Known about the structure:
- By secondary structure, this protein is mostly helical.
Amino acid sequence: QPKKSIMISQEYEALLQSALEDQSQHYEGEISRLRSELASSNMQQQHQHTQVSDRESREIHALQKDSERLKHDVDRLSSALLE
């Protein structure tokens, strides 16, 4: 019974970590996409540079914070499941 419980716990941890890593990769992809859009926009629209870059910079910052939070959650949950 304890062996089965350990196996279930390990499987749950693996699934959880996989899901959190998928989310982290998604946000990292979004950050890259927004950075590319920002660079392109800066080259194409110097005139509107300030408005566009401020908005996109806020989006990038928010996604970076989300990505860091998800990485922290993966570490914290992995540690908790191993205890």
